Each structure stands twice: as C-alpha cells, then as structure tokens.
C-alpha cells in the first residue's frame, strides 16, 4: 500500500543554482559560448553558458536551437550596436536576477532586453521606470502643495495680497454702505464739509 505523497521543495535551491552558475561563468568554467559585442568600433567579448542564455533570452534560444549539426556547435555569437557595459549588466542580471545600474541607463537596459527578448529584464525595467515616474510625480505634487501652503500662511499672517491689476487713473472704488458725500471736482474739501453741515 502506497503512502501519502509529500512535497519536497527547496526555497533556496533556485538562488543557489543561479549563484553557482554565476561563479562558474566568472571563472570561465564550463562556458560553451563567447558573445562578442561591438558599439562604435569598441568590441568586447564575454563567455557564458548556452543553457543559461537560452533559458533567459528568446533571442539566444532561437540562435542556439537553429544551429545546424553539420556546422558543429556554435561557439560564438556577434551582436552589433550593443555596448559592452550594457551586455555585462545583462549577463549579471540573467545569472543573478539582479543588477545595479545608473538611473540614466535604465532605458538602455530596456532596449537591450527587448533586443535580446529577455522578458524578465523587460518587466523589471518597466517596473523601475514606473516607480521612478511615480517618485517624480510625487515630488512635484509635494512641491506644489508646499507652495500653496506657503501662500496660505502668508495670507493668514496679514500680508496683504498683491493687487491683481492697477485701477485706472480717476476711477473710484465704491464700497457698499451708506452714501458718503464726495467733493465735486474743483471744490475744496472745506466747501464740501460746509455743504454736508448745511444738509
């Protein structure tokens, strides 16, 4: 009689596997492909494992699966218009699932991810760009709110608001309330006061 099946699952194994493959690549052990990249006449070579590249990049998977047996196993791949620093970062990402790059290189990493059809790196770049955009928008919102609160506190402190537009010369302001005797043009203020007393 068979017993109940149980699941044996390691949470650390995927990370350990990646770390071990990364160490093998850094030491040049068991590497079976050299990827050469060139950008504006500058060329760089990187050794890697076909299985890792094929598992993380549809571009490399297509290249390696379409090799003809008659040609023998391909030991090199050449990529045009790819900077060495960007491909080094790409390799670090596919071997470790993480890489640190400058903010201004995120767009370039997205472009290389799309060129090499690496879905994980594309999604990671999109998420990071989204976070960066949200951060900028939040800073702008906070700045706008702080400007508004500064204007409000200045108004509450008794600082008179700046006039919107200057009154036209000769124009009078009329405030609601009881009529006030206004001197006619040419009459002196004393004459106007005498007239109001007579009334």
TrEMBL record:
GO cellular component annotations of the record: nucleus
Compositional bias segments (type: Low complexity): 164-175, 187-199
Subcellular localization: Nucleus
Database matches in PROSITE patterns: BTB
Ranges for domain BTB: 31-103
Record Gene3D superfamilies: Potassium Channel Kv1.1, Chain A
UniProt main location, coarse: nucleus
A molecular-function term among this protein's GO annotations: RNA polymerase II cis-regulatory region sequence-specific DNA binding
Residue ranges of the region described as Disordered: 147-199
Keyword Transcription: yes
InterPro entries: BTB/POZ_dom, SKP1/BTB/POZ_sf, ZnFinger_BTB_dom_contain
Protein keywords: DNA-binding, Metal-binding, Nucleus, Repeat, Transcription, Transcription regulation, Zinc, Zinc-finger
Protein's recorded name: GZF1 protein
Organism: Scytalopus superciliaris
């Amino acid at each position: 009689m068979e017993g109940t099946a149980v699941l044996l699952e390691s949470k650390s194994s995927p990370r350990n596997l990646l770390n071990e493959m990364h160490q093998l690549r850094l030491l040049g052990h068991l590497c079976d492909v050299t990827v050469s990249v060139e950008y504006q006449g500058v060329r760089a070579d990187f050794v890697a494992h076909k299985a890792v590249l094929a598992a993380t990049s549809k571009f490399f998977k297509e290249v390696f699966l379409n090799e003809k047996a008659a040609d023998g196993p391909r030991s090199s791949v050449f990529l045009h218009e790819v900077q060495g620093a960007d491909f080094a970062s790409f390799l670090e990402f596919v071997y470790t699932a993480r890489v640190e790059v400058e903010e201004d290189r995120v767009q370039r990493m997205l472009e290389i991810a799309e060129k090499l059809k690496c879905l994980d790196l594309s999604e990671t770049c999109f998420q990071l760009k989204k976070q960066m955009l949200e951060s900028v928008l939040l800073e702008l919102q906070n700045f706008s709110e702080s400007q508004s609160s500064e204007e409000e506190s200045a108004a509450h402190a008794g600082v008179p608001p700046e006039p919107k537009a200057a009154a036209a010369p000769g124009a009078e302001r009329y405030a609601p309330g009881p009529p006030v005797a206004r001197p006619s043009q040419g009459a002196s203020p004393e004459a106007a006061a005498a007239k109001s007393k007579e009334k």
